[in-house]
Amino acid sequence: MNLQSPHKPLYLLQLEALLNRLPDHNRSEKLESTYRRQLAGFIGESSLPFHFENLNTNASHLELYGLRLPYKHHFFQIDCLSLWQHILFHFEVKHLKGKLDFNQSGQLIQINENGQEEVYDDPILQAQYQKQKLQQFLQQHGFPHIPIKTLILFTHPKANLQFDHPMALPIQQFSHSIQQVLETSSSPHIKRPQLFEIGYFLKNQHTERFVDVIEQSGISKRKIKRGVYCQHCRHVKMVRIYGTWQCPACKRKDKYAHIPALRECVLLFGPYLTNRQVRYFLEIESIHLATRLLKQFNTPAFGWKKDRVYDFRHLLES
């Protein structure tokens, strides 16, 4: 049972919004690389529910994906957590293809088909750190001890592991390896109601990460493209005509074309916006039109007149 299904993390959505709003010549290789890595992680996590369904078991279990949990003024992240009554599986997901090996410094090296190398932090150390934090987190909140098995899961079908480690597992071995662990596990450590209690507690403790991606990327805000774009033509600005938006290229009309544009504004600049900020980003001259559009959202607001601020936190949800 998926308590928290694979979903695009907020940071990935922010990177997508930034790339959508940047001219091609302003997209740096570093930004593109960061986006590719985040997207690969999401693709890897999204492949796991299929493999869990292939397990030959009737035992109750829960799955949570993309957890980000608070601990001692910081946060730690877990790609996938599978909860059973007698064991917890903690997966660090790597969606990498090509030859994968460790260098003498303990870094993970990826060699692509064209011979290009990419360097990554040691996923084994990462996973051990996350496991330690998870154990301390559960203990801190009074939950009983449950054994945690940590695995580095390489989900790309073309991942060619050049090393052997008991924590490293290619996706082709997933069902068989997990099945073996389940069949040899000891008696349950918790009852079924406690399993759901832990699962829902972890889900409620999940906190998304909001990043100022514009500042992080060192991009001037003046480079961000403004306006409402046609969802069909992608790079063509729509115009406001008689109560709707119309694309001058394909002639499509859409009364709600401003909604994805406003969501990108929220992802880039934060969830608290004034009427003036909305008009600037959507390129709307009329304060009254902007007010009518904002009222469609029935969103909470505070302040008075020109200082009135609208709360669009709901648009940050994936």
Helix-strand blueprint:
Blueprint lengths: L1 E3 L5 H11 L8 H18 L1 H6 L8 E10 L2 E10 L4 E7 L3 E5 L5 E4 L5 E4 L2 H18 L7 E7 L4 E3 L6 E3 L3 H11 L7 H14 L7 H5 L21 E3 L2 E3 L6 E2 L3 H12 L2 E3 H8 L4 H9 L5 E2 L6 E3 L7
Parallel strand pairs: 1-2, 4-8, 5-9, 8-10
Antiparallel strand pairs: 2-3, 3-4, 5-6, 6-7, 11-12, 12-13, 14-16, 15-16
Give a description of the structure.
This is NERD domain-containing protein. It holds the Pfam family NERD. Residues 40-157 form the NERD domain. With 318 residues, this protein is α/β, with parallel strands linked by helices. It has two domains: 2-205, no CATH class; 226-316, no CATH class. The chain has ten helices and 16 strands. It has helices at 10-20, 29-46, 48-53, 123-140, 174-184, 192-205, 213-217, 258-269, 275-282, 287-295; strands at 2-4, 62-71, 74-83, 88-94, 98-102, 108-111, 117-120, 148-154, 159-161, 168-170, 239-241, 244-246, 253-254, 272-274, 301-302, 309-311. The protein has a six-stranded mixed sheet with strand order 1-2-3-4-8-10. β6 (108-111) and β7 (117-120) form a beta hairpin. The protein is globular.
Percent helix range: 25-40%
**Using DSSP, what is the number of strands?**
16
Q: Please identify the oligomeric state.
A: single chain
* Helix and strand composition category: alpha/beta
Number of helices: 10
What's the shape? Answer: globular
Rounded radius of gyration (Å): 23 Å
Mean pLDDT score, rounded?
92
How many distinct domains?
Answer: 2
Element order, helices and strands? Answer: EHHHEEEEEEHEEEHHHEEEHEHHEE
Question: Strand order, biggest sheet?
Answer: 1-2-3-4-8-10
Tell me the distance between the termini: 20 Å
Give the low-confidence spans.
Answer: none
Note the beta-strand portion: 15-25%
Largest sheet composition: 6 strands, mixed
Pfam families: NERD (PF08378)
Domain NERD: 40-157
InterPro entries: NERD
Organism: Gracilibacillus halophilus YIM-C55.5
